[in-house]
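User:
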Amino acid sequence: MKVLHFLLLFSLFTALSPFGWSDTPSIEDLPAIGNDTIRVFFIRHAETLHNAQPGIDPNSPDYFRITEKGEAQSKAIGKVLAKQPIAALFASQTDRTRKTLELSGLIDARRARRIQNAAFNQVALGEKEDGSPYTLKERIEIWRQGHDPRPRNGESLSDAVARVFNRLRQETGAYGKAVIVVTHGDIIAGVAGSADGDPAWKRWDTFPSETGSIHVIDLKKNGPAILRAFNIVPSLDE
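Assistant: Predicted structure:
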């Protein structure tokens, strides 16, 4: 009996995350939105040509073009989120996030406000001591070394997370409702890791996201951000 009791407890423990989230849930499994909560659906932009073909010339005019798969991802996101009580729609200041939001159909289906806002841009990469710009790849290597610096004319990942949450908390009319934010992989890793209690330098590798994926964070008015779901990938067959 003691062995059976242990196995039951172990199964329950391993089935639950300490922060109440899963990397493969469904939107329908989420708890109701509290009146003191903004539910944020963070979406990584749909697939672009540089995601599908990593070796493509960065100077190509098609580098950030949404692919056919990306178009299908965007439409699938729209179907999954169509019934959510959306109060506002945001995208970063890039064409790929704006296009993802437009292709989702959520703009036409809602009378919610939609804004391209710098608060949801990628991490400002900054400059090295010699004045040359950092690349994202170089910043990732620094995170992997256990550091999250704030370079000249740039920001740390912690800085980026703070600006995202600060902007969302300004949406006072969204409590009890949902907000959609179409953004980038580094921001999604940052906010998810923050809600999960990870140090900033660890978040990139702990929370890798797929293109066209959905991530859910509940932002409490006077409390913490709670990670509800990570890497929901809508089916493209529906």
